Amino acid sequence: MKYDNDFWTKYANTNDSNYNEEFSKFICDLALSLRAQTVLEVGCGTGNDLRAFPENFDVHGLDLNDHALEKAKQKLGSFKFKKGSILELPYENSSFDLVFTHKVLNYIDDNDMLDAISELFRVSRKYIVNFELFGEDEDLISPDGKSRYRNLYKRWLDFKVKIISNVDMHEEIDPEKSRFNLLKKL
User: Fold this and answer.
1) What domains can be seen in the chain, in order of their start residue?
2) What global pTM score does this model have?
3) DSSP the chain
């Protein structure tokens, strides 16, 4: 997997200004409605999406960027943050009730997508949620080749999951209207 540390460190430095309170509330409310006791965000960055969770909730965040993780730990000291790759999640099988990504799979190379999805499936006990920018044919988003639209519905068909939701987010919650895929692990 190609990882551009400088790109993600710069992203982490501006990430706080991109905080979306509505999205953070949405993911927290979703976890509560699904009765999730443990939550993992893969590609958590500085922890913005986790900010609405109460301090006593069992929340975990994983990212490859040390700078982003330090910022997340400073903001959300009661949560558990760890450095690691989506391709080899440093957790046991079925560790979390809810595992989610938010515009992370858009940055994973095509060659690594099956491994990334397999790892999300492996560490989930009950639910997997993806919020990714959608494209039927997974075309490039940016001309620099760093990101692609994703069709997660198609990619999850080969796994033992029930697809509960496959809709675009409302723009008041996510102005980019990422695709909301909610999966129940069978």
Assistant:
1) 5-185 (3.40.50.150)
2) 0.93
3) ----HHHHHHHHHHHGGG--HHHHHHHHHHHHHTT-SEEEEET-TTSGGGTTS-TTSEEEEEES-HHHHHHHHHH-TTSEEEE-BTTB-SS-TT-EEEEEEES-GGGS-GGGHHHHHHHHHHHEEEEEEEEE-B-TT--BSSTTSS-B-B-HHHHHTTSSEEEEEEEEPPTTT-TT--EEEEEEE-
